[in-house]
Every structure is written in C-alpha cells, then in structure tokens.
Design brief:
Blueprint: H1 2-22, H2 26-39, H3 45-61, H4 65-78, H5 83-91, H6 103-120, H7 131-149, H8 152-155, H9 159-168
Helix pairs in contact: 1-2, 1-3, 2-3, 3-4, 4-5, 6-7, 6-9
C-alpha cells in the first residue's frame, strides 16, 4: 500500500514538473522533478527513467549541463531502448562528458575535471579555500596539460589510453601558501600506457565503460 501511495505521489510530482516546464518555469519544475526521482521506487524502472529524463531537461534549461548529463546517464542505464539513451549518446563525447567543439577540447576538459576532482576530494567540504588557491591549482593543471598534449606519444593514444593516463598521472600539488611558479610533479609522466580497448560496461547498458559507469564526472557532480 505504501509503495502504491509513493508511486502515485511520484507520478503527481512528475506531471506537475512537466507542466512547469511547459510554462517556462524550470526552477519550479526542477524542485518537483527531483522529488519525483527521490520517491519513485527503484522497481518502477520506466517511471524512474522518465523522471530522470525530464529532470535532465529542467537542468539543461537552467544551464546546469553537467548535472543534466549525469541525470541522462542514469536514465539511459535504467532503460536502454529509451529516448533518454538517444539524447545522451548524441550529446556526449568518448569520456561520457558534454561534447565540445573539438577533440582537443574534449581531452582538455576531461583532464582538468579529473585533476581538479582529485585535488578537491582531499579538501574540507570539497572546496577551495580562496580564489588565489583556485587560480594557483588551475594554473598548475594547465601547465601540466600543455606539456602532456605537446608530446608525440600522447598524440598517438586512443581515448581509453588517454583516460587511463589522466587518472594515473598525479600532480604534486603544493601545500597552499608555499606555492611557487615552478611546476612540481610527483614523478615525470611516462607514456608506458598499455593498449586499452573501449570495453563494454559491465552494468549491462551496452555502452562503452568510458561512456557509462567509467565516465568522467564534471565538477558539479562532486
């Protein structure tokens, strides 16, 4: 009985959310659609996938693009033969992130997201302490990227190999307050990356692992 009541309430929030979207009120729609997602039972896969899809539309309308991609990623995993899957695949790159105008930008955004995430996950509340710290860390990441992308070995790597390298490469971030302009590394990055194929994700989605459970998360998703 409780499940039926929860399902009915979730359906009500979903209808209201779609109504608010149709009347160009995405902020109101977002709150309603989030409630629908939260109370839809996992066993109701069609309803949950539909709620996640419409949640992604509200997020896109509010220009929260990284969170919209995450919502689409979850929706398409629940229902592989859905419109959410088509929209997701059409809008993502090989890293499972929003597709950029060029492949080099796809690589750059993936590298920066991975390195910034690695740094922020060790910080209290996953945030920078100041704007100066943010600027210093980003500068170090971009300096590392420039050296990496200009190497001949890097240019020959495929997406899966680049992703493995991005995650293995550990920048020796300074303790903030003792930052100097010289770039420091825990070790010089080496191109001894084993050949990696785009393998199918083990979750059963049918997509490559790099575009599904192994996708690169944007900073908004931390």
């Amino acid at each position: 009985m409780k499940t039926t009541s929860g399902t009915s309430k979730a359906a009500f929030y979903l209808r209201k959310g779609i109504y608010e979207l149709a009347h160009h009120r995405p902020a109101k729609a977002l709150a309603l659609l989030r409630q629908s997602v939260e109370i839809t039972p996992p066993s109701c896969e069609n309803d949950l996938s539909k709620a996640l899809y419409w949640l992604s539309i509200a997020l896109l309308r509010l220009d929260q693009r990284e969170l919209a991609v995450r919502s689409l990623a979850n929706a398409q995993k629940i229902r592989r033969q859905s419109y959410a899957r088509k929209v997701y695949v059409r809008n993502i790159n090989e890293y499972g992130m929003l597709k950029r105008p060029t492949r080099e930008l796809d690589d750059l955004y993936a590298f920066v997201s991975i390195q910034l995430s690695s740094y922020l996950l060790k910080k209290p509340q996953h945030r920078f302490g100041s704007q100066a710290e943010h600027s210093a860390v980003l500068k170090l990441i971009l300096e590392t990227w420039k050296q990496l992308k200009d190497s001949e070995e890097f240019k020959s790597l495929e997406c899966g190999e680049k992703l493995l390298l991005f995650r293995k490469l550990k920048i020796d971030f300074p303790i903030f307050g003792s930052y100097s302009t010289s770039v420091r590394y825990s070790e010089r990055f080496a191109m001894n990356i084993a050949r990696v194929s785009m393998r199918t994700c083990s979750c059963g989605s049918g997509l490559p692992f790099e575009q599904c459970c192994g996708r690169v998360q944007g900073l908004s998703e931390i």
